[in-house]
């Protein structure tokens, strides 16, 4: 049976020159997204001076989890600018599992340091937008990991949905989790600690930088999974 919705190749209808320019721009954007995620992780880790307090490990763990591991775990599926482009689909999936497992480990560790720091200083929990968003992000990450397990063992769990549909659900939920994580990271820039550490133009740069990898990830997932115009012969 012919599907009502078909998928059109990215860049269809472009001339040869425009097509290669489009490919070059996409590749450059993906490479810059890699650099932005890794750069944010490195700079935040240096600014937090890990080891000086219990709290100092919280930004380190969370930036490793979401700015680096989650970003790399999604971008490795990109056909443009991914260092793992030589890997097979099965190899990329395994690397994706590994990255997402690191996300959970680093995020839970970061949460533990935050809770311990609050308890030692006798300060209340969940009183800021950042803490509330962070809790929602971590809960969504756990749920998304559970969805990933369903992707691995669909027959064992006796799921009624077809594998392509499960992939679409997983990718869509993953995009939502990543965007939620991006908002949470941006909200951290309004914390007393960060505003006391970074000021002026640099603060605005840090506030806007997480948006770039988010846009690249959103473009990658929507181009790969969401339906385009219906093609006619």
Automatic annotation (TrEMBL):
Record bears the keyword Mitochondrion: no
InterPro entries tied to this protein: CYB561D1/2, Cyt_b561/ferric_Rdtase_TM
Per the entry, which co-factors are needed? Answer: heme b
What broad class of enzyme is this? Answer: translocase
**Translocase recorded as keyword:** no
Pfam families, A to Z: Cytochrom_B561
Topological category with respect to the lipid bilayer: Multi-pass membrane protein
Supply the PROSITE patterns for this chain. Answer: CYTOCHROME_B561
User: Can you give the residue ranges of the Cytochrome b561 domain?
Assistant: 22-228
* One GO MF term: transmembrane monodehydroascorbate reductase activity
Name it: ascorbate ferrireductase (transmembrane)
Its Enzyme Commission number? 7.2.1.3
Assigned keywords, A-Z: Electron transport, Heme, Iron, Membrane, Metal-binding, Transmembrane, Transmembrane helix, Transport
Q: Where in the cell is it found?
A: Membrane
Which residues span the membrane? 29-48, 54-77, 97-117, 129-156, 168-190, 202-226
């Amino acid at each position: 049976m012919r599907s009502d919705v078909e998928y059109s190749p990215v860049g269809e209808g472009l001339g040869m020159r425009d097509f290669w320019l489009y490919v070059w721009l996409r590749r450059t954007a993906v490479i810059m997204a890699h650099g932005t995620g890794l750069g944010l992780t490195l700079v935040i880790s240096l600014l937090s001076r890990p080891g000086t307090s219990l709290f100092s490990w919280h930004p380190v763990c969370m930036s490793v989890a979401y700015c680096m591991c989650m970003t790399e775990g999604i971008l490795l599926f990109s056909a443009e600018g991914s260092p793992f482009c030589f890997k097979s689909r099965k190899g990329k999936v395994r690397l994706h599992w590994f990255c997402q497992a690191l996300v959970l480990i680093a995020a839970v560790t970061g949460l533990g340091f935050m809770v311990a720091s609050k308890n030692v200083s006798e300060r209340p929990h969940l009183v800021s937008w950042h803490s509330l968003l962070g809790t929602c992000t971590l809960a969504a990450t756990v749920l998304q990991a559970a969805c990933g397990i369903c992707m691995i063992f669909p027959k064992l769990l006796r799921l009624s949905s077809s594998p392509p549909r499960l992939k679409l659900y997983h990718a869509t939920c993953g995009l939502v989790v990543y965007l939620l994580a991006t908002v949470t990271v941006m909200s951290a820039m309004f914390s007393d600690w960060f505003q006391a550490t970074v000021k002026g133009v640099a603060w605005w740069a840090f506030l806007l930088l997480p948006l770039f990898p988010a846009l690249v990830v959103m473009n990658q997932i929507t181009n790969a999974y969401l339906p385009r115009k219906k093609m006619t012969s």
